[in-house]
Amino acid sequence: MKRSVIYPGSFDPLTNGHVNIIERAAKCFDKVIIGVAKNSSKNSILSSSERVKILKKVFKNKNKIFVDQFEGLLVDYANKKKIFTVLRGMRTVQDFEYELQMATSNNKLNKKVETIFMVADGNYSHISSSLIKDIIRLGGDASKFIPKIVEKELKKKLLEKG
Ligand code: ADP
Fold first, then answer.
1. Rounded mean pLDDT of the chain?
2. Are 68 and 34 in contact (CB under 8 A)?
3. Catalytic annotation, pick one of 10, 128, 129, 133
4. How far apart, in whole angstroms, are the C-alpha atoms of residue 57 and residue 114?
């Protein structure tokens, strides 16, 4: 039986922390579906299609890793894909409360949906997409924390905005 997992998130933008989780997940599962949530948050720096494009480029040569996007409830997406294992990353105790609430709610919404957690690698546990957005918006250098393609796309985006 093939073991598949959905790794959902905003990925706005994708960071080296996300990449680390995805690559480790590909060692544990036969198929890792990265589910990019199409949210309409005004705080987004990249559109969902830009986020998908970046993820597809980063993982283009990885045969176990697939990029997809979804709108609405994660449990509905899980149902549609017929994949009921959800993976989330756990960085600090700050993540814990929110993740516990989400995992419990998703399981209450659909009993089949189980969330599992992968502990962040110590080298990346301080990285978050919001931190990257702040660094970029304030003109800093976030290159240590994000893949090259992300840096390129973000710079392009900022130039477009003038
Ligand atoms: P969301 O908006 O759904 O929280 P994110 O894109 O911020 O989406 O994060 C997706 C998942 O990746 C979450 O489970 C989050 O805890 C995890 N994550 C984010 N940054 C890191 C990191 N640096 N190391 C490990 N996991 C991370």
1. 94
2. yes
3. 129
4. 29
Q: Report d(CA 16, CA 78) in Å as an integer.
A: 25
Number of domains the chain contains: 1
- Per the annotation, the verdict on 126 as an active-site residue is no
**pTM: predicted TM-score of the whole model, two decimal places:** 0.95
Q: Give residue-wise pLDDT tens across range 45-74.
A: 899 999 999 999 999 999 999 999 999 999
Whose tokens are 């690698």? That residue is 121
Residue 8, preceding bond cis, omega within 30 degrees? no
**Where does ligand 1 bind, in terms of residues with CB under 6 Å?**
9-11, 15, 17-18, 21, 88-89, 91, 95, 120, 124-125, 127-129
How far apart are the C-alpha atoms of 111 and 90, rounded to whole Å? 22
| Domain CATH code at residue 12 | 3.40.50.620
Q: What confidence score (pLDDT) does residue 42 get?
A: 60
Share of the chain above pLDDT 90, in %: 83
Is 160 domain-assigned? no
Boundaries of domain holding 16: 4-124
Tokens standing for residue 98: 């929110």
